[in-house]
Amino acid sequence: MKRALVTGANGFTGSHLVKALVGRGVEVVAYVRASSNLERLAGVEVEWAYGDIGDRQALDRALEGVDTVFHTAAYVELGIVDAAKMERVNVEGTRTLLAAAQAAGVSKMVYCSTIGIYGDTRGQIINETFQRQQQGFSSAYDRTKYLAQQLVDQAARQGFPVVSVMPSGIFGPDDPHFGPVIHLFLKKRLKFWLGGDRITGIVHVDDLVTAMILAAEKAPTGEHYIISAGELPSREMFRLLSQATGIPTPHEAPKPLVVVVASILEVLGRLFNWNPPIGQERLHYVYERCVRVDGSKARKALNWQPRTVEEVLLEFLP
């Protein structure tokens, strides 16, 4: 790998990947939108390429001389979202990138997917051979990532050298999803939480990046790798952090109250074009949907050696 294109290079996973590649001496083309916030990559020596993920001409220019592509760009959100935009980014953007990468003759592409493509496993621990059983989709994000994965798999069947990694919950001190909650807890400002029984798969962002690079170097065309260091119920995550810090665990909000509040916020969100922090879709993910995975294939096939779940969480501590 000499020259790599990273889509979504300014994002959480993308920025960590760019830094890791640059640290290995790889020339990186960072593909971002012209309006993107580039603070995560301040001071990192990359070649910038600007364009939307569905802009074929911009992608063709960015791919000149590139031998490896890492596709991390995605519209990630639950709740009241712009479903049409999500389709354009996650599905049509992936379709356009696949076509451009094939035309450019790249030697390998790694697609950052999600364990969500397997649907609700109803608590069953599954591996890469699992066939989705859920009828329908839990969210627009769930649907668009599943459809994008179908495009990637179709390209692989046609001989294009693309492999997929399916991360579980991606953690790290600068992560925009789980991080703010944990930082609130550490500041003693998180008094209530919900869904203590909800099981979350966990992987450190830098371990995900390592898995992606290993997949680029070692994985045969068409392979899938679940990337997860393990899992914990939310209640146990806070208990572990509480033991390390002495900060009391947050109280669990009563589910009936949460349901009422979520219903009210959902109505307000639709009236004022606002995505509330809690709504019906998020409640489904917290209380009903349960995706559990086995990440042992990546450990064995790629010699991937991630941090433990405990190490990932304790890294948040000052």
Automatic annotation (TrEMBL):
InterPro entries hit by this protein: Epimerase_deHydtase, NAD(P)-bd_dom_sf, NAD(P)-dependent_oxidoreduct
Domain NAD-dependent epimerase/dehydratase: 4-227
Signal peptide residues on this chain, from the entry's feature table: none
Top-rank taxon, per record: Bacteria
Protein name: NAD-dependent epimerase/dehydratase family protein
Species, as recorded: Spirulina subsalsa FACHB-351
Organism lineage: Bacteria, Bacillati, Cyanobacteriota, Cyanophyceae, Spirulinales
